[in-house]
Structures are given as C-alpha cells and as structure tokens.
Amino acid sequence: MIKRALFLLLLSSAGLASAAQLTDMETRWLTAGSAVLGYAKQELKLPIDITVQPQARPTDVPLALGFQDGRCKLVLSMRGNANAEDVLAGVPAEQQALMIEAMVAHEIGHCWRYAQGVWHVLPAGFEEPSQPALEQAQALRLTRREEGFADLVALAWTQHRHPQQYTAVAAWMRQVRQPASAAGSHGTLAWLRLAPSGAAFNPAQPLFEQAASLWRQGLLRDE
Q1: What is the pLDDT of residue 57?
Q2: Closest Cα to residue 51, out of 85, 92, 79?
Q3: Is residue 124 domain-shared with residue 84, that is, in the same domain?
Q4: 106, 150 in Cβ contact below 8 A?
Q5: Residue 96 has what pLDDT?
Q6: For the chain, which residues score pLDDT lower than 70?
Q7: Residue 127 structural domain
Q8: Shared-domain flag, residues 162 and 213
Q9: 3-class secondary structure, 189
Q10: CB count in 10 Å sphere of residue 185
C-alpha cells in the first residue's frame, strides 16, 4: 500500500482531490510505480506532474511522458482504453506490479534526460554519422536512442530494487521490444542485450550513470 504522505503527493501532482477520483486501474498502476515516483520527486527533485486523461484516444498508450513548460508530464490514458493492459498479457498476476514499476522507471528515465537538458543529445565523444540520414530515419534514430536509455534505466532500477526478479523483468522487456524493427523508434534490443543479467550494472555508480555506461556501448551498435 502506498504510504499516506506519498499517496497524497501523487494525488496533488495529478490535480486530484482524493483517491476516489482515480479508477481502480489508475490506482493500481500508481501504486505499483509509487517507489519510482517518490524517488524521482523527493530524491532527484525532478519536475514531474501526473496527468490523468478523462478519455483516451484510440492511439494512446496507457502510460507516456510529455514535456510542457519546463516540466515532465506523466500521462495516464486508461479511461475508455480497452487495450490499456494489453502490454501485460501473459504476465502472471503476481508479477504485473513489477512490470508496471519498470514502465514507470522507463518514463522517469525520459524525464531525467529532459531535466538534464540532454534530450536527443549524444554523449561526449560521439558524433552523428558523416553521411546525413533522411529526416524520417534521423527522427526514428533520435527516438530510438532515448528509448534505449530509458529501457536501461528501467533495468537498472529493477536490479537496484528487485534483484531477485531481474531475469523476469528483463525477459519481459525483450519480449515487448522483439516485434519492433531494429531501425524503428522502439527497436531497443541492441541495448537490452547488453544487460542479460543484473551483473551488467555497476552498483558503485549512481543509478543513471549505470544506465548511461551501457547506453554508450549500445550507441556503437545502433545503426
């Protein structure tokens, strides 16, 4: 159960007066992600708000991150979304909260990059290919890089919080990403394959540097 103080913080961020305004699904997802959100807000001081869409659009995913007026917006689009939990299909009920927590950590990875002012920016020592890519291909590449970083943040968080469950979460993430084209916006297997076990992450480093170290390796493999 979410601790009362954190629960009130989440509700305040979402602009909701009480838990009664949340659906059961929204409550379940926020509960599963509460530790990540608490870490993001209280320790990292990330500028993140929670937005609950009153009605999902046909193309909306259940959880996404946007940026507006210098702040990250964690958007829940579950109301009227019959496919909201399709991503959890086949996941045992007792493991679903772990996967939701990993998804929230993924979105926090996006927020961290944005807050650092490095969104779509390559790390030091890396340069764009000398042969310019077509505009669409470059847009896909930029998004794919950010998705790769966020996926690694999700895995680093899982190793930090739930090391005994790392294998299950990592396998599920690879399964989710498997259908994506390697050249598509969510083709992140080049990064996920660098972390088949939690031993890939260096616990002596801060969480985001753990992810960044592997991300840089994956950039060398990304086309």
Answers
A1: 92
A2: 79
A3: no
A4: yes
A5: 98
A6: 1-20, 130-133, 223
A7: 120-219
A8: yes
A9: helix
A10: 16
H or E, element range at 209: helix 207-219
- Beta bridge partner(s), residue 163: none
130 shares a domain with 84: no
Residue 25 DSSP class = H
How far CA 2 is from CA of 29, 37, 108, 192, in Å, comes to: 11, 11, 18, 30
**79 and 136 belong to one structural domain:** no
Q: How far apart are CA 103 and CA 36, in angstroms?
A: 10
- Tell me if 51 sits within 8 A of 74, measured CB to CB: yes
pLDDT of 1 reads 47
Domain count along the chain: 2
For β-strands 63-68 and 71-76, DSSP reports them as antiparallel
User: Is residue 201 located within the same domain as residue 124?
Assistant: yes
The answer to whether residue 36 is domain-embedded is yes
What is the amino acid identity at position 181?
S
Cα(179)–Cα(149) distance, integer angstroms: 19
Global pTM reads 0.91
The beta strands (E) that lie in the chain are given as 48-52, 63-68, 71-76
82 and 133 part of one domain:
no
pLDDT tens string 23-65: 999 999 999 999 999 999 999 999 999 989 999 998 999 999 9
State residue 100 phi and psi, 5-degree precision. -65, -40
In this prediction, residue 128 carries a pLDDT of 81
